[in-house]
Amino acid sequence: MERDIILKEVGKILIPLIQLFGLYVIINGHLSPGGGFSGGTILGTSLIIMHLIYGKDFIMKIYSRKRLITSLSISLIFYTLIKGYSFLSYQLHLPHPSAGVTGRILSAGFILPLNIAVGFLVASVFYIIFTIFINSEV
Amino acid sequence: MDVFITNYYETGAVILFGIGFATLMLHRNLIKKIIGLNIMDTAVFLFFIAKGYIFGKDAPIIVDKFKGVDSYVNPVPSALMLTGIVVAVTTTAFALALTIKLYQHYGTVDLEDILKMRGDQND
Amino acid sequence: MTNYIPIINILILILFSFVMMLFKDKKKIKYISIGSNLVVFLLSIFLMVYSISREVITLSIGNPNNLLGIEFYIGKSESVVTLVFTFVMLMILWFSNFALEKEVPENRISFFYVLINILLASLLGVIYSNDLFNSYVFIEVSTLSACGIIILKDKKENIKATVKYLIMSTIGSGLVLMAIAYIYSITGHLNISLIHETIVGNYQYHENAVLIILGLFTIGLGIKSAVFPLHSWLPDAHSSAPTPASAALSALVIKVYVFMLMKVLFRMFNYEIVNSFIIMDIILLLGSMGMIFGSIMAIMQKELKRMVAYSSVAQMGYIVFGIGLGTVTGTAIAIYHIIGHAVTKSSLFLISGLFIEKTGSKKIEDLKGIGREMPLTLGLFTLGAFSMVGIPILPGFISKWYLSLTCIEVGRVPLILIILASSLLNVLYYFPIVINGYFGNDNLDGKVYNSKKVEFIRILPIVLLVLAMMIIGGISFNLIELFNI
Q1: A92, B103, B109, C94 — which has fewest CB within 10 A?
Q2: Which string of b and e fits C235-256 if b means at least 16 CB within 10 Å?
Q3: Confidence label for C457 from pLDDT (cuts 50, 70 and 90)
Q4: In chain A, whose CA is at the least distance from the CA of C1?
Q5: Do the beta carbons of residue A40 and residue A22 sit within 8 Å?
Q6: Number of domains observed in the structure of chain A
Q7: pLDDT above 80 (res C302)
Q8: Is the pLDDT of residue C433 over 60?
Q9: Across the interface, which of C155, C167, C185 has its CB nearest the CB of B33?
Q10: Of A16-30, B63-77, B83-97, C274-288, minimum mean pLDDT range
Q11: Alpha-carbon distance A90 to nearest alpha carbon in chain C (angstroms)
Q12: Which residues are CB-contacts of C475 (< 8 A; sequence separation ≥ 6)?
């Protein structure tokens, strides 16, 4: 189905901004309100908008179901490994990154990588849920 | 009576919980049941967060400098409820997906009617 | 290092379930699944050996000096339950290796292994966790993955059963979360030990609130563990699920919530406090009703798997009955029954799956003469049925015996009649299958000896489960000594 040209042109401008904002919320998650879940939702929304404006075929080229599942499971594995290490490292006195200076992006130990993993996970999951519902292939 | 007015958050939460619970139990339509479930969850979130709120204190975010423990509200209930919201989202998504599937197979979302159809028990 | 086995167990299971999602090849997924479960089982053996010589292992996760830190609490009962659960799950996975293809569509088989790992991890999490909110999250995860393994078999019945299960159990978890909110507002803690310290001195100032908390926990966890009047979802869900899934659901999943209820009643409060409320009498009443009505409804069933599922309702009645007695021995027997029933019911479900697969019918009446066609399988079924009915030295008998002794101890002798009646009712629905299977000329007419034999490697997990059942029966005295909450 041919979509409206206005939608397509506005989408070209807005979608990168939405994605940038999502990345900002994820990366700044340990310093301000937000974090992996909220930022991931924003990223997922941008994917959903892309699907609605440019159609299924366009987005399936970049984010196919298989690739989404792969990114989902890799971020889950990454999350489990880091979180597991951080659970154990306190008790076993293994080295863990220092808290750093409050206010810097590279601070707060494990929280930044965990936020990034959660962000990508949530983005893929939200988009997968959306496609499941819109294609009614439950 | 005064107790209810001073603790209006909790009163509201319990009333909402009752509404959600009644919707979940009494309605036959599955979509309405799921809405009731969400109302019930929201009531619990409200109750929990009201427990952490202290009148006149700031949100627990350090903006310029740390103002001391006493000047922020309790962040633990909010953090817990963030997890609770994620759980509620997943449950709702799963329930809605099941509803679609159920509609495809039975042609109705009325749970009572579906339970009456004893259909394919012998296959 | 042995201290950290609980968390390593959970991490291994979760990690490998995500690794499985990366693979497409079913053989590899099966190897990963069985391998990770085997590792967890071996680690659980270490954990049990280690914890028997100690009182309690507490393990705070993250920063130990933090009151908010999540904590694991592993006593002797937890470690034994872990060992039995991981063993049963390993056997179920072994069985499903050969049986799953026959029931589940080809493209969904890998989901089963992913979900089973997550399910076991969350069940272990509920058992270990000493933190109410953490337990709540694990409960939700286990519910969703349990729903997932029911719906794998893509039939109308399954979807209906899953919807019923999901609606009921979300009501349950809503009530549990509300109870957690209440207890948090009274005590300001979520850690069970800290709540205990706070509430023991102060509960009489909050009697109504404590009563509400106890009620919410009992009903919420009761729905999830199918305590008698709240069981309506169980027969549909457990009978329509694929066989390995129903074995896992019936043997493990519903037990965990009762275990959590025990922790709430006796570790968060204590025996003295809960016995001063009416709630214990209600729990006892629910247990007795479950024992009787669960068995009566099992007698009325015409399908094998539905009958075994209703028998689970009756057996949950025994566990709840043990809790309701409100004594240390009562709780120990409840835990003993949890592990005894886990082993017995999983083998019974797996055998029913074999019967249904070989005869091609779900009906009980089509099982006549099955003893000539599948003698070994029906023999194993007979042993399981003996345990359910209560033939000496098998775990079912031990639980009933000690429950009766405890009834006398607390001065409630008439309750023994309920136990006896329930045993007799058990005879009425298990023995006809065995008797019709082995004896009677008209039953055995035209049946060829060993004609429906199953390869031994498929029966071996069931044999091991039955052996474990006998061992649990044999060392019952030592086990019951170990258990406390």
Answers
A1: A92
A2: bbbbbbbbbbbbbbbbbbbbbb
A3: confident
A4: A92
A5: yes
A6: 1
A7: yes
A8: yes
A9: C167
A10: B63-77
A11: 6
A12: none
Q: Taking CB atoms and an 8 Å cutoff, what residues of chain C touch B90?
A: 140, 144
**Which of B24, B38, B87 best probes binding to C when mutated, by most C CB atoms within 10 angstroms?**
B87
**Neighbouring chains of A at 3+ CB pairs within 8 Å?**
B, C
C-alpha span between C160 and B115 (Å, rounded):
8
Rounded (10°) angle between helices C5-22 and C76-99: 20
At A110 the three-state DSSP class reads coil
Q: Quick one: closest CA in C to B116, which residue?
A: C160
Average the pLDDT over each of A84-93, B81-90, C75-84, C456-465 and give the range with the smallest value.
A84-93
Touching subunits of B (3+ CB pairs, under 8 Å) are A, C
Minimal Cβ distance to C144: which of B20, B91, B114: B91
Q: pLDDT tens for residues A23-69?
A: 998 888 777 777 888 899 999 999 888 888 887 777 778 888 888 88
Query: CA C216, CA C210: separation in Å to the nearest integer?
Result: 10
**Angle C410-C260-C420 (CA atoms, 0-180°, nearest 5)?**
40
pLDDT at A132: 83
Q: Work out the pLDDT band at A11, boundaries 50, 70, 90.
A: confident
Torsion sign over Cα C262, C266, C272, C273: negative
Domain ranges of chain C: 287-485
SS3 C371: helix
The interface predicted TM-score (ipTM) is: 0.89
Q: What is the DSSP annotation of C333-362? A: HHHHHHHHHHHHHHHHHHHHHHHHHHH---
Of A32, A37, A138, nearest to B97 by CB-CB distance is A138
Check CB contact of B77 with chain C, cutoff 8 Å: yes
pTM of the model: 0.92
CB contacts of A37 in chain B (<8 Å) are 82, 86
| pLDDT band for position B6 (cuts 50, 70, 90) | confident
* pLDDT exceeds 80 at position C64: no
Interchain proximity B97–A132, CB inside 8 Å? yes
CA distance C42 to chain A (A): 20
Cβ distance C4 to A88 less than 8 Å, yes or no, reads yes
Phi/psi at C360 (5° precision): 75, 15
CB C11 within 8 A of CB A84: yes
Q: Where are the beta strands (DSSP E) in C191-287?
A: none
- How far apart (Å, rounded) are the C-alpha atoms in residues C290 and C293? 5
A90 touches chain C (CB under 8 A): yes
Joined tokens for residue C122: 């969350």
Closest CA to C241 of C297, C311, C305: C305
Map out the domains of chain B with their CATH numbers. Answer: 2-116 (1.10.287.3510)
Summarised one tens digit per residue, pLDDT across range C246-274 is: 899 988 899 999 999 998 888 888 888 88
Q: What residues make up the domain containing A90?
A: 5-134
Q: Which of A114, A90, A117, A86 is nearest to A30 (CA)?
A: A114
